[in-house]
């Protein structure tokens, strides 16, 4: 089967067949082992992925091809599945497991037979577990969330690190009202937020505060079964807190309700806001672009009704179905989770880490990274909350994002009523997935 381009000029993918879909694998002479990763082409992260692949080739002799894609990654993966051309390996978000597994794209992973599997964090293994309790990936990278704050601004307005949500709101107000950058203009915001609906970002952003307040989207109700609880007072309280920042105190950067993370990173770098609730993957970038002395990492304060807790997520190594290179797939997964693979992915303190927090418990974070701010993220991971292993989390996150974004964009919206409506929709979604 010939190689084909995906829409724009991106690397072509090995022609392989999905299990049960007819094709028996590559029929051409080029049997390159293909690895897809959700990163921007030519980015520092894509270069780190290439280093990982090259080290694997040196160790195993397996020739590799890294395909880095960011925009519409899932759409392009669907196109490949339709053409029976799935790559051998996909490194992608933990939250995508249910979606890919439900479509029959993933091979099951034998945890006991995976060399080094016993060295991996049990919390990370949970994120590689399907709704049926079986493993469909090898854990690769983990992350929790924290506040990256403009330390120079905080010191300028003479305020202490926030210990409560009220403190956090006061700091955001000071950043908005008291000219922390000293340019004589009222042109800064407290929070910068990727609060748009694309890929469910509004829900993604709100998750850490929901978990910090003891709330949740779903509650387990037996083996593989869940109940929608997004209208619980603790969840409503977190969404209301954020609506207050958008609407009452107006401490969120303008345009946030339309932004994804790509735009929000730039907003923070341009000094348009001073508090960014985000994962550790942008820390090195901001240190380089803003200056290390101007930044600090602070834990997300416990909410008034619960916590502590933040969103937990990361990336898994997915062994895609239909590959003619199953032995190489297993070897790559084993290399990626090994201490050597994890260290390469961590990329020390430089920008481009594709392993944020190592999942291999034998890897010493402090020995690899000298920046002590990483420790805040590592400590937060102890209370991180992963998306539950429903058959497909993607529509639940997207539906939640649509509803949450709407109450931030419309200041007249009643948060409790909106969360009641969302709860009904999530219940219907669980029923459609036979997970209710």
UniProtKB/TrEMBL annotation:
Q: Which UniProt keywords apply?
A: Signal, Transport
Q: Which InterPro entries match?
A: SBP
Reply yes or no: does the keyword Mitochondrion apply: no
| Domain of life, source organism | Bacteria
Matching Gene3D superfamilies: Periplasmic binding protein-like II (3.40.190.10)
Q: Does the keyword Transport apply?
A: yes
Q: Which PROSITE patterns match?
A: PROKAR_LIPOPROTEIN (PS51257)
Q: Which Pfam families match?
A: SBP_bac_1
What family is this? Belongs to the bacterial solute-binding protein 1 family.
PANTHER family registered for this protein in UniProt: MALTOSE-BINDING PERIPLASMIC PROTEIN, MALTOSE_MALTODEXTRIN-BINDING PERIPLASMIC PROTEIN
User: What is the protein name stated in its UniProt record?
Assistant: Sugar ABC transporter substrate-binding protein
What lineage, starting at the top, does this entry show? Bacteria, Bacillati, Actinomycetota, Actinomycetes, Streptosporangiales
């Amino acid at each position: 089967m010939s190689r084909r381009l995906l829409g724009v000029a991106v690397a072509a993918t090995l022609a392989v067949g999905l299990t049960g879909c007819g094709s028996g694998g590559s029929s051409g002479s080029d049997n390159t082992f293909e690895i897809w990763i959700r990163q921007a082409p030519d980015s520092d992260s894509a270069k780190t992925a290439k280093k990982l692949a090259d080290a694997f080739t040196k160790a195993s002799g397996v020739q590799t091809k890294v395909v880095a894609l960011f925009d519409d990654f899932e759409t392009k993966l669907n196109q490949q599945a339709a053409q029976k051309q799935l790559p051998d390996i996909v490194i992608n978000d933990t939250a995508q497991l249910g979606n890919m597994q439900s479509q029959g794209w993933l091979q099951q992973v034998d945890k006991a037979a995976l060399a080094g599997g016993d060295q991996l964090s049990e919390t990370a293994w949970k994120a590689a577990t399907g709704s049926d309790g079986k493993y469909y990936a090898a854990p690769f990278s983990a992350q929790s969330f924290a506040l990256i704050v403009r330390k120079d601004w905080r010191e300028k307005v003479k305020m202490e690190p926030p210990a409560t949500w009220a403190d956090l709101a006061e700091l955001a107000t000071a950043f908005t009202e008291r000219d922390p950058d000293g340019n004589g203009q009222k042109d800064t915001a407290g929070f910068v937020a990727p609060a748009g609906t694309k890929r469910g970002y509004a829900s993604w952003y709100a998750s850490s505060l929901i978990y910090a307040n003891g709330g949740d989207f779903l509650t387990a109700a037996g083996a593989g079964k869940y109940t929608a609880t997004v209208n619980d007072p603790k969840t409503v309280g977190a969404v209301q807190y954020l609506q207050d920042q958008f609407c009452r105190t107006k401490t969120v950067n303008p345009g946030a309700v339309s932004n994804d993370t790509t735009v929000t990173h730039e907003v923070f770098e341009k000094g348009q806001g001073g508090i960014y609730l985000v994962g550790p993957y942008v820390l090195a970038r901001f240190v380089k672009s803003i200056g290390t002395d101007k930044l600090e990492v602070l834990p997300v304060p416990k909410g008034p009704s619960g916590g502590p807790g933040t969103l937990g997520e990361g990336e898994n190594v997915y062994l895609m179905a239909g590959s003619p290179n199953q032995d190489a797939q297993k070897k790559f997964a084993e290399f990626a989770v090994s201490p050597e693979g994890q260290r390469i992915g961590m990329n020390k303190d430089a920008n481009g880490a594709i392993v944020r927090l190592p999942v291999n418990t034998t890897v010493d974070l402090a020995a690899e990274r000298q920046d002590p701010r990483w420790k805040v993220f590592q400590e937060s991971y102890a209370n991180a909350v992963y998306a539950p292993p429903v058959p497909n989390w993607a529509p639940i996150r997207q539906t939640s994002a649509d509803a949450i974004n709407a109450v931030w964009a419309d200041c007249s919206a009643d948060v409790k009523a909106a969360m009641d409506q969302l709860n009904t929709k999530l219940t219907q979604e669980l029923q459609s997935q036979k997970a209710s």
